[in-house]
Design goal:
CATH class of the largest domain in chain A: Alpha Beta
Number of strands of chain A: 13
Helix content of chain A: 25-40%
Strand content of chain A: 15-25%
Keywords (chains A, B): NAD, Oxidoreductase
CATH topology of the largest domain in chain A: Rossmann fold
CATH superfamily of the largest domain in chain A: NAD(P)-binding Rossmann-like Domain
Shape of chain A: elongated
Organism (chains A, B): Gordonia sihwensis NBRC 108236
Largest interface: A-B, 49 and 48 residues
Radius of gyration of chain A: 21 Å
Protein name (chains A, B): Putative oxidoreductase
Low-confidence stretches of chain A: none
GO molecular function (chains A, B): NAD binding; oxidoreductase activity, acting on the CH-OH group of donors, NAD or NADP as acceptor
Oligomer: homodimer
Pfam family, one (chains A, B): 2-Hacid_dh_C
CATH architecture of the largest domain in chain A: 3-Layer(aba) Sandwich
Strand order of the largest sheet of chain A: 8-9-7-6-10-11-12-13
Number of domains of chain A: 2
Structural class of chain A: alpha/beta
Largest sheet of chain A: 8 strands, mixed
Chain lengths: 324, 324
């Protein structure tokens, strides 16, 4: 690390609130603000890229201008939008907003599971029709959940669901039977073999070439009648048209916080199908989340500027930060 | 206890499924089935009344015919509908469906709290309008809940909410600071003094002359803006018109599983007010609940017929089974 202050490019977009700690960052580094269209102009000489507009993939197009880049931080849990071959094969370090979303998303998943088992959405539909229709609900204790994805969010989800009494297993790359959070982790490469006794299937894996489409028509068909899918990972983990068909048939229902195309297009049947509960990619975004993301980067930048390690790096081949 | 088999009157109603264990009960006792209109004819000589139609108050009108009655079992948690002065001053023992609803209702309360903090109902409204509107939700960990009622259901609720990370206090007749489930229990006779810092107010007290209207306009006014009321106890615990006014003003919101009049009348504003989420008295009714109630009474009847204590009695002056 040289004595000069690092140069940080803040990649943002119109209408996105800037980091709350921008002034503090500017005391440590020279800050250049860019958007998709100006990124190539801002990158020459820059050491660090802060991807604050987390849906941007502009770096792949401005990559030729990244002549001094050493570190890219993505202010999100998933880094799928930013990765491309040039970045993967470079020595540029990639970090993510590790930990920030773990507990908020775990709570959101629990909310979806309870809403399903206690029939809250159906009760609201009856209320809208001004109909008083008593029905029996389910105990949530004892229900069987499979959490696909064993990173920080999956682990926080497993711990919370277990505290409420659900039976929880995980699905990941490395099967095992003694995981501290999941107990049993089944092989996510052989998902269909582990879905026949699942009541609540929680998708929270990172999107990589391995996980893309991992919940396809064949896997969905092995879920029991009445099973409930919660997707808080990425839309492309799931074959959305196959899931739509299962929901339309009344066999499955789902809470989908992420979708193939966001916002969901106007003519998509998921807007109106009974049993489909879509939400606009907000499961982890609790009040103050942008401040937390800003604080996290400020801390990492402080470490970087002092020559210390800014935090765990994404394995760019795998597409996520590997566990211990 | 004499050698003759006890006579049990089953008080039911048209359309109510009979107890699953009726045949087993008939091996222990003579069973007479009655409805509101025939109760007076069935009671003479009967030892036991099983109130299976839990909304019935027919016993007060047929009381003159209860010439041998020793025990009334109500297949519900709350016994308010059955109690009247003649029964209170008699030596007839009253029991309730103690424990059956504790965990199911605790789960339902948690579902309501999470639906509120994660904006699930609002998200469904946007979905119905096919609008993609990102919003920030709340962390539920750290939120402040006050559970009014320290019986079995209140205790199960407190334990579950604490496991999910809420800060929980109780409100009951006997204030204390070392309760195993609540930690602090504040004085329910002075409720208004303890509502200023409550995010989620859970009403689960039994309905008695002391608790009727305990959450009145004055108490409601002390709740902070944005507070959320969950009523799974009895409608009459709350001044329903005062609560309706607070919801109409947008200051409070509520999940109400119980109401002054059930079913809720057709013209009631609670059907349509944003922020009012009514449900048809179903919070504890999980799949199999009637079987559990039947099994519970069969076990108690078996004890009774053998001369053993059938289980903890309701304090008929107070209107509930007192804690230890």
């Amino acid at each position: 690390m040289s004595d000069r202050r690092p140069i940080v490019v803040l990649l943002t977009a119109d209408g996105v609130e800037p980091p709350a700690d921008l002034d503090a960052m500017a005391r440590i580094a020279e800050i250049r603000t860019a958007t998709d269209g100006t990124l190539a102009d801002a990158l020459p000489g820059a050491d660090v890229l802060l991807v604050w507009d987390i849906f941007s993939d502009a770096l792949s197009r401005a990559w030729h201008a990244a002549d001094a880049l050493r570190w890219v931080h993505v202010a999100a849990a998933g880094v799928d939008a930013i990765l491309f071959d040039g970045l993967r094969s470079s020595s540029v370090r990639v970090t993510n907003a590790r930990g920030v979303f773990d507990e908020p998303i775990a709570e959101y998943v629990l909310a979806c599971i309870l809403a399903h088992d206690k029939l809250l959405h159906e009760t609201e539909e009856f209320r809208r029709e001004e109909r008083w229709v008593h029905r029996e609900t389910r105990r949530v204790a004892g229900r069987r959940a499979l959490v696909v994805g064993t990173g920080g969010i999956g682990r926080a989800t497993a711990r919370l669901l277990r505290r409420v009494g659900l039976q929880v297993r995980g699905a990941g790359r490395r099967p095992r039977e003694d995981d501290p959070d999941f107990g049993v982790v089944v092989d996510s490469a052989d998902l269909a073999a582990h879905l026949t006794d699942v009541d609540h299937l929680v998708m929270v894996a990172p999107l990589t070439e391995t996980t893309r489409g991992m919940l396809g028509a064949g896997q969905l068909a092995t879920l029991p009648d009445g099973a409930h899918v919660v997707n808080v990972g990425r839309g492309a983990l799931v074959d959305q048209s196959a899931l739509t068909a299962e929901i339309a048939a009344g066999r499955l229902s789902a809470h989908l916080d992420v979708l193939d195309t966001e916002p969901l297009p106007a003519d998509d049947p998921l807007w109106t199908l009974p049993g489909a509960h879509i939400s606009p990619h907000m499961s982890g975004d609790v009040i103050g989340w942008r401040g937390t993301l800003s604080d996290q980067f400020l801390g990492m930048l402080t470490d970087y500027a002092a020559g210390r390690d800014p935090g765990p790096a994404v394995d760019k081949q795998r597409g996520y930060v590997p566990g211990r």
